[in-house]
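Sequence, structure tokens reproduced for absentees:
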Amino acid sequence: MPASVGRHATPSLNRRRFLLTSAGGGAALLAVPAVAGWLPAADAKAAAKAAAFVDDYKTNVVANLTPETNAVVRVLGGFAKMWKTGGAWNTGTPLMPDVLRANMRYSVRITAARTDAAAKESFIIDRQHQSYSVIAGLGPLADLYKSGAKAVTSITSAPDGTPSGKISDAVPADAPAGSAIGAGSYDSDLGQVAKLVDTVRGPFASGNPAKFAFQYPRPWRMNEDSEVVDTGRKDEFGFPVYESKVVVAPQLLRQRGESASEDGGFPSGHTNALHLAALAYAHAVPERFQELVTRAFELSHTRIVAGMHSTVDVLGGRIMASALAAAALADPANAELKAAARAQALAYFEQRTGTTADTLNAYAHSADRATDPYADRDANARTVEPKLTYVLTRRGRDEPLTVPKGAEVLLETRQPYLTAAQRREVLRTTALPGGYVLLDGFEQWGRLDLFTAADGYGAFDSDVTVTLDAAAGGFGAADVWRNDIRGDGGLTKRGTGTLTLAGHNRYHGGTVLLDGVLVAASANALGEGDVQVKGGTLRADEVLRVRGSYVQDGGSALELLIRKNHGPALDVSRRISLGRGSVLSLRLDAERPPVAGTTVPVIEASQLRGRFDRVELNSRTLRAVPVYTTDGLSVRLLKR
């Protein structure tokens, strides 16, 4: 590392050291590679003339180790601004030493705090075929998948100590005939899915060329001559606890690579493989899209827990996997396979669960956290969010993202009702901000946040028209957008299907319902503009606030929930206009239903014009008598 990193650091031909300053004022000298530098300048030159990654991904072979010749090295070019590669594994130079110090400190803290159980888990994930490890993200469908795909593993537990030799996954001797490790057998009920996973993880998806190109050491190789680093923990007396090294899990000590020059840390190959498998499964089984993405993030983190990789290694693996998965799925040569895999998975799971395309998603989320670790969407978000950036800090301006060519294919089965251009907008409006150097490489694949993108738009920067068809089944018939949608644009809902808005939305362009069902699952679901119900049914599952005016035409319905001792179910800031033939449908709250003889406020506005053609109530014992005023509507509940 450069002499300027620490005043005691001095360059040498083969090694330089940088100073790690602990919170307690101590210092540790960490041996880290020093290097020649072709990547930073070459990366900028290569990016200026390069083909899109999805058109060039087959250049990722070990014969190509420069950004001009290798598409993966190019998309990982953000790392070249942090690390200057040398001619050997131990001759590199940090260009952003503060980030790389934080990277090492994080690894030290994580391995110092590792439990025995976590060490064993990291061994299993290290030795188990990555495509098999990801299957657990299928939740209630996982065991069905394993049996249908004939997917097996021999790595189901970890030893207490260090095994005597190398251990590899294999088909157990007692496995059913035709079984296979990884995603399973091609000669099975889910053979097309297994083949899709293997294709996405195909011959151009290796992390080895990039490892050879960047030559960034694994964290445990940087322990030489190190002294102490503050772990961030305190002992029982309140004094800082120090740890000097990244400690590899004991079960993995003999599983490590033996040649430092051929065993680089960046990018993490396991992380790449885990995310590739997860995105392939998610394409075939989009009902578990977010859960599979979460599983990949969780498993990738075990690489740091194991002491085998650092945060930048894991980030690099995720970045390349996003690009490689998109490239394989967008490749015309794989079009028939990916369609066959999706159709096969849907037919298989429907038959095995007794569901339809419309009910499979509910079944796929029917378990609780006791049996499905990914049953809680909010918990999944908390798992993913900090791992999108780890120790990276933002530097510079937040430049708008141009979504990489072909990236929209990653949402193709999760949001089949959107056009390719609309899926690109979803990716753009849910992306991470710019300024994270490692994520800002060529085409900025690292900025994609697929977990959040699965929950729909992050912003309406222009007017959006979405069409869902009830006859299409699955996500083509009904979907939920959970993000908090901002922007100056508005939403128009078409088609016979159902769209649910569940976020705290702040878009200003208004909401228009033309057909089907639009569900407002939060008080601010419809943003801050006017609302027009020209057809179909607008349903509110909670008290609904409309910040502008509300217009409802004939032939349309408004469905509201009414509760005992509660305010109006619909609060409109401006005027309400009701057309002839419009319908109001009221549902009694199951937990706090109003009772006979009471008058319940339903709608409040600055002014109300017109009347509903009829007011319906979902009760066999009560009927609702509307009471109109100039600024709202109440109903008297009477016995039938």
In short: The chain has two domains: 3-388, 458-639. The chain has a mean pLDDT of 91. The CA atoms of residues 190 and 344 lie 7 Å apart.
